[in-house]
Inverse folding.
């Protein structure tokens, strides 16, 4: 599939050419790129099937078919298919990454004084493996300011139910939860981690872990006793909303 305006080729690997497979791929592309006004295709059974027509009715776009047995009437897509096939064949022979090759096609300007397909479709230039300097868009500062304001609002909402964790010092004794046994075990702070509010700790067995905000022993001492103390299971009867007594079957008593 390709965009007539930007000449941007969309390449997907499919297991077969049935109408169900093609319709599923088309659904994914339309969900990513938006619904066009019209899709021009050939007269293959994949596009003339009821399943694809149902997709057109559901997503509200028109289907236009080219003239039968006339490839020139569908020359744009035929040229796109030829370019992609040649690129993939060259990549197979040279054992290069086909994704980088397709990205180069999408990032190459259509003409000397025109933009690339990626810039026409997405409104921005792609960063490729070639050493180029990409100029940021004009409204980048405004967009960054809006994103920062949204993140600050989410941070304030999250901090309403959070508490400040005390800063841990090197050599301080703490407690951490064992990821396997789910019990609280003593440990010691080794150093600060690169991520915020995280520390590298070392257990009594010499295992080093990275944990966010390890707890001092005086905070988790009571919880450690609760986790390590075995409890006797208590069988309780279940009641519904209307207090109707429900007993288990006789064979389970």
């Amino acid at each position: 599939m390709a965009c007539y305006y930007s000449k941007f080729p969309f390449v997907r690997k499919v297991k077969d050419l049935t109408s169900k497979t093609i319709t599923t791929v088309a659904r994914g592309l339309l969900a990513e790129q938006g619904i066009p006004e019209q899709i021009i295709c050939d007269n293959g059974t994949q596009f003339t099937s009821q399943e694809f027509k149902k997709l057109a009715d559901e997503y509200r776009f028109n289907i236009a078919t080219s003239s039968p047995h006339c490839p020139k009437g569908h020359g744009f897509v035929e040229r796109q298919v030829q370019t992609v096939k040649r690129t993939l064949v060259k990549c197979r022979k040279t054992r290069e990454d086909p994704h980088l090759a397709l990205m180069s096609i999408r990032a190459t300007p259509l003409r000397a004084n025109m933009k690339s397909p990626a810039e026409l479709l997405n409104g921005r230039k792609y960063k490729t493996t070639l050493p180029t300097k990409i100029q940021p868009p004009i409204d980048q500062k405004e967009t960054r300011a809006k994103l920062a304001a949204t993140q600050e609002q989410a941070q304030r909402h999250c901090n309403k139910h959070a508490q400040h964790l005390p800063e841990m010092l090197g050599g301080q004794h703490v407690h951490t939860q064992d990821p396997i046994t789910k019990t609280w075990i003593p440990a010691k702070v080794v150093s600060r981690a690169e991520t915020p509010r995280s520390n590298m700790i070392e257990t009594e067995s010499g295992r080093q872990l990275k944990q966010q905000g390890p707890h001092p022993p005086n905070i988790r001492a009571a919880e450690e006793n609760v986790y390590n103390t075995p409890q006797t299971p208590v069988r309780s009867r279940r009641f519904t909303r209307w207090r109707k007594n429900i007993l288990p079957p006789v064979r389970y008593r």
